[in-house]
Amino acid sequence: MKIELIVSGVCPFCLEAEKVWRAAAADHGFEFAVLDIAQPEGAVLAQRLKLQTVPALLIDGTLRAVGVQSPEEALALLQPARQEAHDRMQQMGFTFSPDNRGFILAAQAYLMLAGLGLLLNGSFLSDNAARPAFLHLFTLGFMLFMIYGLASHMLPRFTGNPIREGVWPWLQMGLAHCGVIGHAVGYLAGWHTLIVVGAVLTWLSLAAFAFRVWPVLWPAEPYSNSR
Amino acid sequence: MHKRNRLFVSIALVYGLLGGLIALVRLIDPSLIPGNVPRAHGHIMLLGFILMMIYGIALHVLPRFGGFPLYSEQMADWQLYLANAGLPLMIAGWLGWRDMLVMAGGVLTYGAIVLFGLNMILTVRAKGRGKTIPVQ
Ligand code: HEM
Ligand code: HEM
Ligand code: HEM
Ligand code: HEM
């Protein structure tokens, strides 16, 4: 959610309004911007909204109030948007979706596999050429899969924005499984081609993850197409 | 979600892709990137990807789980600056065989870790500070 305050350099109340809204935005983790009508960006916006008065408050691009608000009034103005984000979050539910459940379960399996290094090497990691095998069963198999499962579960709930679903999570998961196993088996067997193939597949899985998560963090501005 | 925390997560994704890429390039042809590439890769992944991801998510969620607002937003902003000033220096140091750069970057990185640790401790132990996150 984005809060914009349109001000003018010569308006004595604008500073007060800015203080209230800056604090409210920080409290609730909303984006906040101050636009001056003397600057091109602010002027365009003021014209589009046919503004007569400053300070003027926009929430997600819609004019919501003019004048100076008290912190309580600010909270009340934010309430509908908060409620809406909240409703969306609650629709997502608390429980793991099947894909994220799969990531978390696989992470535990890889953790146990990585732990086998203790038996085989006498220590977690050997000092020979196969060292990266168990190392990456831990870092990629356990750590990366945990991040996959937890971040894909939590970030949409933190932001209220949806994550790319459909085939994407399964593609990401398939690539990661083939990648981690290929990478590890390649090191254990000393087969360079398999190491590289595993590495490429793992990297593609990471790219798929980034592609899915990016719009959760930086959604297309809800009002950008109306300009 | 606070913009700074979204930045942490976004930067983590970029480091993850970057760290994977340099490991990949090294596997294909070790002469293409000079320096101690495994060490740089290891730290890009651990400090850049894993730790920044944890920073972003923990800064958002721990205050909410704890029931108190984050102790200091400024500390968290500085944590972002220090972590992202330090790691590139460390990477440059490893790739250029300059131990002083690794050291300098390490101090900054460590500063970020300390800021995070203190901020979290002061947030989670905030009992009695009075101001709870309002439940609507
Ligand atoms: C106080 C905490 C920690 C201590 C004392 C510690 C200590 C160590 C030591 C002594 C090694 C070398 C082991 C060897 O050569 O066989 C090592 C390796 C490793 N640690 Fe930790 N560690 C800690 C926390 C962590 C955490 C939190 C992570 C992951 C996020 C981690 C990831 C790794 C990895 C991936 C290696 C293998 C690196 C390689 O072989 O190049 N460590 N750790
Ligand atoms: C009776 C139930 C609930 C109440 C009273 C409640 C209350 C709140 C309040 C007051 C906030 C702070 C919002 C803000 O700072 O603007 C918040 C944030 C949040 N809540 Fe809830 N919540 C409830 C249920 C849930 C559920 C079911 C979920 C997830 C499935 C959820 C996920 C979140 C998240 C992710 C945030 C952070 C949002 C943000 O930073 O904008 N909440 N909740
Ligand atoms: C795209 C995924 C990845 C690829 C292709 C990859 C590849 C490699 C390669 C080729 C090495 C060097 C092995 C050697 O010759 O010594 C290495 C080392 C290492 N990797 Fe990865 N890796 C990936 C992901 C990760 C992740 C996600 C982590 C941590 C979370 C990680 C942590 C490490 C560590 C700690 C080392 C040892 C560095 C050192 O020796 O100082 N890697 N990796
Ligand atoms: C302030 C931040 C950090 C600094 C300045 C730093 C610095 C260093 C240096 C100089 C080395 C090389 C040691 C040697 O030559 O024997 C090293 C190795 C290593 N570091 Fe870090 N590091 C930092 C944070 C971390 C973190 C947070 C992790 C894991 C979560 C980590 C994991 C490792 C691992 C696994 C090795 C390789 C150890 C081995 O191969 O035996 N480092 N680090």
Secondary structure layout:
The complex is a heterodimer of chains A (227) and B (136).
Chain A: E1 2-7, H1 14-28, E2 31-36, H2 40-49, E3 56-59, E4 62-66, H3 71-92, H4 98-121, H5 131-159, H6 168-189, H7 192-217
Parallel strand pairs in A: 1-2
Antiparallel strand pairs in A: 1-3, 3-4
Helix pairs in contact in A: 3-5, 4-5, 5-6, 5-7, 6-7
Chain B: H1 3-28, H2 37-66, H3 73-95, H4 99-124
Helix pairs in contact in B: 1-2, 2-3, 2-4, 3-4
Bound molecules: protoporphyrin IX containing FE (4 copies).
The site of one protoporphyrin IX containing FE (HEM) has 9 residues of chain B, from helix 2 and helix 4.
Architecture overview:
By secondary structure, chain A is an alpha+beta fold. Chain A is built from seven helices and four strands. A four-stranded mixed sheet of chain A has the order 2-1-3-4, with helices on both faces. In chain A, helix 6 (168-189) packs antiparallel against helix 7 (192-217). Mean pLDDT of chain A is 87; it is low at 223-227. Chain B has one domain (3-124). Helices cover 77% and strands 0% of the residues of chain B. The structure holds protoporphyrin IX containing FE (4 copies). One protoporphyrin IX containing FE sits between chains A (123-125, 135, 139) and B (42, 46, 50).
Largest sheet of chain A: 4 strands, mixed
The biggest sheet of chain B amounts to: none
Q: What is the rounded Rg of chain B?
A: 17 Å
Oligomer: heterodimer
Rounded mean pLDDT of chain A is 87
Give the termini separation of chain B: 17 Å
Q: Overall pLDDT of chain B, averaged?
A: 90
Distance N to C terminus of chain A: 17 Å
Briefly characterize the structure.
The complex is a heterodimer of chains A (227) and B (136). Chain A is an alpha+beta fold and 227 residues long. Chain A has helices spanning 14-28, 40-49, 71-92, 98-121, 131-159, 168-189, 192-217; strands spanning 2-7, 31-36, 56-59, 62-66.
